[in-house]
């Protein structure tokens, strides 16, 4: 097993022995620097083999990994640090913000990581007892920031549960295109636990790198967003034979458009397996093995999970409730233990769905107001806050519109202050100063007034 390929990144190839040895050495560097068990470590790193090494190093110290995407703007990054009250910041060269100290003694070939210490307050009561391992920062649907905490035990439980659908083995070769900052626990950690080979496809250009990895490395398992499958289905340089060795292609992160599913099946003669992942739960649903007659469904609940539709209407549609192993252990900001957040043991997803006579789940409405852009969630409230910083804006409303490749893209309407002039380009520049690029509205329109509900709330409609 130690001699088997674990990670491939361009011309760099690491065996499991080399990967674990590098993580052990890096962990010792972090321990010597002062990182201790249960410390919250913000990990800001681009997708790479070094991301995997660094994350394993943090976890092996029993410290708590807080992944932070390097695509975030400075304001967004600082919000994560503040709300998660991190003790340490470990960042690679691409994510450096200034003021960090270089970590000495790293193994040859490892990225030039830097370390910064933050003054953090005492953890909340019950934090240490959870055996914390991982905190995924997220903004709530109302824009209120929070963190989803997982224990080491929960990570093991949810990866085992997800494997009932993915069935990963040491023979699998998995080309990887998603952001590790957003997709990690039930994917990267599961793949490593099962001894699979992960082929990173981050080198540009994207479509060619992905297709080359599938073809030349003989990929067997794909785990990507509908955006990636749309590209494969329509790229002229990707032939049907290139995917001949793929045993399972999982579509995740956002709803799978019917056109993408049909185009992929026409070209490659295989169905995409749509999955339903939830940060607080894991991967409770996957339509695997994929069935053409169940397109549009995320499948039945995996064996370890139970599902209930709460308060269904005449059409059978109601809120989706889930329970099973590997549920989150607590919300961090503000602190709320799992038991207090669940409803009689059930997790309320906030999504609407129905089940057919065979028990297959169809999701008919995503979390209220959330915009799903190419596998990444955009919360209107945070975009509205950025637009609202401009002195010409009195109020604004952000909403999502369907897009054939990206799923949804953000658009905005603004009401200007008296006497202010409308300059769409300037408003978008204001957004770019405070938001990651994918969150910036593609169109900003001027309106005299925003539509409101009877209670006075802004009606968030296209």
Notes on the protein architecture:
The chain is of the alpha/beta class and 462 residues long. The chain has 3 domains: 118 residues, Rossmann fold (3-Layer(aba) Sandwich), CATH 3.40.50; 212 residues, Rossmann fold (3-Layer(aba) Sandwich); 76 residues, ANL, C-terminal domain (GMP Synthetase, Chain A, domain 3). 25% of the residues lie in helices and 28% in strands. The strands form 7 sheets. A 5-stranded mixed β-sheet has the order 4-3-5-7-6, with helices on both faces. The protein has a 4-stranded mixed β-sheet with strand order 2-1-11-10, sandwiched between helices. A hairpin with a 5-residue loop joins strand 20 and strand 21. The protein is globular, with a radius of gyration of 22 Å. The mean pLDDT is 90.
CATH architecture of the largest domain: 3-Layer(aba) Sandwich
The number of domains is 3
Helical amount: 25-40%
Query: Kindly, what is the distance between the CA atoms of the first and last residues, rounded to a whole number of angstroms?
Result: 54 Å
Q: Find the CATH superfamily of the largest domain.
A: ANL, N-terminal domain
Computed structural class:
alpha/beta
CATH class of the largest domain: Alpha Beta
Give the beta-strand count. Answer: 26
What composes the largest sheet? 5 strands, mixed
Mean pLDDT over the residues: 90
Strand line-up in the sheet with most strands = 4-3-5-7-6
- Given the C-alpha coordinates, what overall shape results? globular
């Amino acid at each position: 097993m130690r001699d088997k390929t674990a990670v491939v990144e361009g011309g760099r190839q690491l065996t499991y022995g080399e990967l674990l040895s590098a993580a052990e050495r890096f962990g010792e560097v972090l321990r010597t620097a002062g990182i201790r068990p249960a410390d919250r470590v913000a990990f800001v790193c681009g997708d790479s083999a070094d991301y995997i090494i660094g994350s394993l190093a943090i976890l092996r110290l029993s410290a708590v990994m807080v992944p932070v995407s390097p695509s975030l703007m400075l304001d967004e990054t600082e919000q994560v640090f503040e709300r998660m009250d991190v003790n340490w910041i470990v960042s690679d060269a691409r994510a450096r913000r200034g003021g960090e100290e270089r970590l000495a003694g790293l193994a040859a070939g490892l990225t030039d990581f830097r370390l910064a210490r933050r003054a953090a307050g005492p953890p909340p009561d019950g934090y240490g007892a959870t055996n914390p391992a991982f905190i995924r920062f997220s903004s709530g649907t109302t824009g209120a920031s929070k963190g989803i905490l997982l224990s080491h035990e929960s990570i093991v439980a949810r990866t085992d549960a997800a494997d009932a659908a993915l069935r990963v083995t040491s023979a699998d070769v998995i080309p990887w295109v998603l952001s590790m900052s957003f997709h990690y626990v039930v994917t990267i950690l599961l793949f490593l636990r099962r001894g699979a080979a992960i082929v990173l496809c981050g080198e540009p250009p994207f479509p060619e790198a992905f297709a080359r990895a599938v073809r030349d490395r003989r990929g067997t398992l794909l785990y990507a967003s509908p955006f990636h499958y749309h590209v494969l289905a329509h790229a002229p340089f990707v032939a049907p034979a290139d995917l001949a060795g793929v045993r399972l292609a999982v579509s995740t992160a956002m709803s799978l458009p019917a056109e993408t599913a049909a185009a992929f099946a026409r070209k490659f003669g295989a169905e995409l397996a749509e999955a339903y992942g939830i940060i607080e739960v894991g991967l409770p649903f996957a339509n695997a093995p994929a069935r053409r007659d169940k397109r549009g469904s995320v499948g039945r609940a995996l064996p370890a999970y139970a599902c209930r539709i709460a308060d269904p209407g005449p059409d059978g549609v109601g809120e989706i409730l889930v329970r099973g192993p590997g549920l989150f252990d607590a919300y961090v900001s503000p602190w709320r233990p799992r038991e207090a957040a669940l409803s009689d043991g059930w997790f309320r997803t906030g999504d609407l769905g129905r089940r057919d006579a065979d028990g297959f789940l169809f999701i008919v409405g995503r979390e209220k107001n959330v915009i799903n852009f190419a596998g990444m969630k955009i919360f209107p409230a945070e975009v509205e806050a950025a637009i609202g910083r401009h002195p010409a804006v009195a109020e604004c409303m952000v909403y999502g519109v369907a897009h054939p490749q990206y799923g949804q893209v953000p658009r905005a309407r603004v009401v200007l202050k008296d006497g202010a002039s409308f300059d769409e380009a300037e408003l978008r520049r204001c957004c770019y100063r405070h938001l990651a690029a994918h969150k910036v509205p593609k169109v900003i329109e001027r309106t005299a007034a925003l539509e409101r509900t009877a209670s006075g709330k802004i009606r968030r409609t296209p």
